Amino acid sequence: MCSIEYFHVAKEQFRIAPGNETVRAWPFETKECIPGSKQLLESIRDDYIELLAICNISHDDSFVANICSKGHSDTEDILVILTRDVDTDMWQYAANNIKKLIDNTISERNSALRITVEIRNPMKMYRDSTIDVQPDPRAYEACKNINDISSQFYHLIPGFTSLSFEMRGPRKEDADPRWPTAAVPSMMICVQDGMHYNWALVEDQIRVVVGDIATDLEVEVHLEIWAGDSK
């Protein structure tokens, strides 16, 4: 059993936080960090880039920002390290050691700063949005048929707030031609923020109810359960 926010970010393969921390759930907001965070991280830039090299992780770029899930606030700044690597085997080790480097530097300077780290591949991480693409007739029919029987699975969803059918995919500015992706029809279920439950079980139960509707039409309809607003 976990929160809906944790359930969502736990599926993320290409964003890693140190230790037992979790990355901020998408959709998130990126805001300015406090000046002291930027100055401290600039002073250890060569050190954390060297740690990345030891872990055989390419460093495309990095920045520090205040990142919080949409509608929330956070007092901790984040060093975001960008890479286009797809081998994530050493990411956790690197994140742990860079976090240790940051914490030691903060302690040595008797600073009250709160800074963590995230390693991400911005082209592979999940950040789909609702986009204006006309679905093909089979996708439309599949979504319509699922919506017609939706009353059969509402009771399975704790904290249910809304159901919608949308075309989801990366925005143009987030797309990378090396990994082409297309918008896919998606069943978007929203629940109350912070709701705790066995969300994997909920997904499985909904798929049982939906059954072969999309399969019969040879269409894959994605299922996503979100906290609050999916867009």
How many DSSP E strands?
11
Residue fraction in strands:
15-25%
Order of helices and strands: EHEEHHEEHEEHEEEHHE
Unreliable residue stretches: none
The overall pLDDT, averaged over residues, is 87
Task: Report the sheet with the most strands, covering strand number, pairing sense and barrel closure.
Answer: 5 strands, mixed
Write out the strand line-up for the largest beta sheet, numbering strands in chain order.
2-6-5-4-3
Question: What's the oligomerization state?
Answer: single chain
Query: Helix content range of the residues, please?
Result: 25-40%
Work out the radius of gyration: 20 Å
SS summary, helix count: 7
Helix/strand-derived category reads alpha+beta
Report on the architecture of this protein.
With 231 residues, this protein is α+β, with helices and mostly antiparallel strands. The protein folds into two domains: 2-7 and 14-120, no CATH class; 129-227, 2-Layer Sandwich (GMP Synthetase, Chain A, domain 3), CATH 3.30.300. Helix content is 31%, strand content 25%. The protein contains seven helices and eleven strands. It has helices at 4-9, 35-43, 45-54, 91-108, 137-148, 199-210, 213-216; strands at 2-3, 15-16, 28-31, 61-69, 77-82, 115-120, 129-130, 160-169, 184-191, 196-197, 222-227. The protein has a five-stranded mixed beta sheet with strand order 2-6-5-4-3, covered by helices on one side. Helix 3 (45-54) runs antiparallel to helix 4. The longest helix has 18 residues, at 91-108. The mean pLDDT is 87.
